[in-house]
Amino acid sequence: MGRYPRDTTGYSAVMFHKVLVANRGEIAVRVVRALREMGIASVAAYSDADRGSLAVRLADEAAYLGPSPSSESYLRIDRVIDAAKRHGAEAIHPGYGFLSENAEFAEACATAGIMFIGPPAEAIRKLGSKTAARQLAIAAGAPVVPGTERALTGWEQARAAANSLGYPVLLKASAGGGGKGMRRVDRESELQSALRDAASEAGRAFGNSEVYVEKLVIEPRHIEIQILGDHHGNLIHLGERECSIQRRHQKVIEECPSPLMSSHPDLREHMGQAALKVARAAGYTNAGTVEFLVDRDANFYFLEVNTRLQVEHPVTELATGLDLVEWQLKIAAGERLTLRQEDVTWRGSAIECRIYAEDPDHDFMPAPGTIVHLSEPSGPGVRLDSGIFQGWNVPLEYDPLLAKLAAWGSTRETAIHRLDRALAEYVLTGVRNNIRFFREVLADAEFREGRLSTSFVERFFKTRKKTEADPESEAAAALVLTLESNGSGSPPLTKVSTNVSRWLDSGRDELLR
Amino acid sequence: MKRRVIVNGRSGTIEIEGSRLRYDREDGVLIEGEFSLEGTSVLLNGRSYRVSKGAGTEIWVNGRQLSMDVFDPRDLRPGQGMAANHGRQEIAASMPGKVIRILVAAGDTVEEGQGLIVVEAMKMQNEMKSPKSGRVVEVRARPDATVGAGEILVVVE
């Protein structure tokens, strides 16, 4: 029996009976789990590649969307809505990525009479464009990276702006994204040519050569604030997550609290209030994340808002003891946020690492394939959000995130030891992955001291010493392969064993005893 | 029982007698001792190792990946097997993916390091380069085709 009897009325709104999960991988599993815990039937939407996925296996029902490419399945608004209707789902949880930050999709849900589990379409729209979100943040009084608000009109204006900001500065394309049209300028003598290059690159990439100038934040930390708001005007923050460890501008390790908070005890509250100002100005409800850059002097600047559940939400859950997905569902069903700001407390330290099918030794190239052997960690303080199993074929059509491994400890040091212990237990073969890389990062002196910045991974690789396996390990591997090729010793290790004869044998042994 | 071992490009031998092994690497490293094997668990001189096989020659020991081949030295005939492959070179996909661009055609002359084909997996594009200067004798890949790891895409001579 779930916690939400079907006839609940009165103060709390009637909870959904059935929810469609319009996502895949570990996040689909995460949402299906929350639904099961709440006694709500789950429908896993799937593409051809995901027919055999863990989410489909764990859900009550599954709805086919279409072929494997996401443009023909997970990104198809019509097919997702049709799947929800076919299965009689009253609400859709979009997870992250795919349609989760698509205002058109949120509107299409409303039109179809289906609840979109996320913020209102208008809020998604207001916060969707980086420049519009920046304007909104400025109007709401949240600090932004100092710079010109509009595109530069010429060299003289650029020179005056850069001089008043102070070098180094960053030229950015107004229509920008993906680093295109972006130039770091360290001194005035470089400004003119950088301006010309940035404008022409922006013109080629976006058909818009407008460029503006911002102060460059050197070795920034990436710290974000989790927010939660209901449809009754209640809006709170759940503190920060530090996500400075990134590769290719994508986070790989996240933690709560940020190590910076121990030396800056007021920072969380200041950032939390700034995040709430932005959220309030946008009419935000449900779960969301306001991202900031933090400089070396602990000044913080608004970056953008992610209008959805974040990949790294488990560290907030571990540190606060709250269940964000449960709150998302309750809020979408119209329940009040009974939690007040003063009820939110943070205990200990939580660190998560994203297990990707990728090769850290070759520029983190994705490495799809079949999971040959899987042995997952567990034990005290360990949380694993995984979307894989032994024999699962990691599809090449999607993001190569396999699982998220998080550890909680009463202190950051304990959390690091636990996470390292859990990584050591983790056996995942058949696809290249970054488990070993994380163990090296956790052993890094700067990481241990909490001296983090978004340039950490680059620095780490510059000074990384590649260590080899010890010869005893080689001997152990050679032993196994030799006995296997000889047909003696243990059964082949590659086979997923369905052989029951050992059980029969031991049963016989018992009888003979 | 004696076998030749190639691990991460380095060679050695392993000898197994009853519950004793002797692993002798060409660079002089020698490991000897008592072992016990149970499924994926190896005890060697009282220390515990977890050994799991992956794809192809990949084998993992205590979270570390090795590339290892073990073969009977009597099966090796001169001029075969590990010897370098002069002349003809087959360029195979290093990972499963989709062929998105073919940069050469049969008959083209290519330089060493020149891009031959672009394979995409998980939104990342990987350009396969020619291992040698020579002539393209065959292009087996087809545009938009899905290819598996190890599948031969181009042959250069």
Order of helices and strands of chain B: EEEEEEEEEEEEEEEE
The total of beta strands of chain A comes to: 22
What portion of residues of chain A is helical? 25-40%
**Amino-to-carboxy terminus distance of chain B:** 40 Å
Q: Let me know the number of strands of chain B.
A: 16
Q: Could you please describe the fold and organization of this structure?
A:
- The complex is a heterodimer of chains A (513) and B (157).
- With 513 residues, chain A is of the alpha+beta class.
- Chain A contains 17 helices and 22 strands.
- Chain A folds into four domains: 100 residues, Rossmann fold, CATH 3.40.50; 70 residues, Dna Ligase, domain 1 (2-Layer Sandwich), CATH 3.30.1490; 243 residues, D-amino Acid Aminotransferase, Chain A, domain 1; 42 residues, no CATH class.
- In chain A, helix 6 crosses helix 9.
- The longest helix of chain A has 19 residues.
- The two termini of chain A are 44 Å apart.
- Chain B folds into two domains: 74 residues, Glycoprotein, Type 4 Pilin (2-Layer Sandwich), CATH 3.30.700.30; 68 residues, OB fold (Dihydrolipoamide Acetyltransferase, E2P) (Beta Barrel).
- Chain B has no helices and 16 strands.
- Chain B has an eight-stranded antiparallel β-barrel with strand order 1-2-3-4-5-6-7-8.
- About 6% of the residues of chain B have low confidence.
- The chains are: A alpha+beta (513), B mainly beta (157).
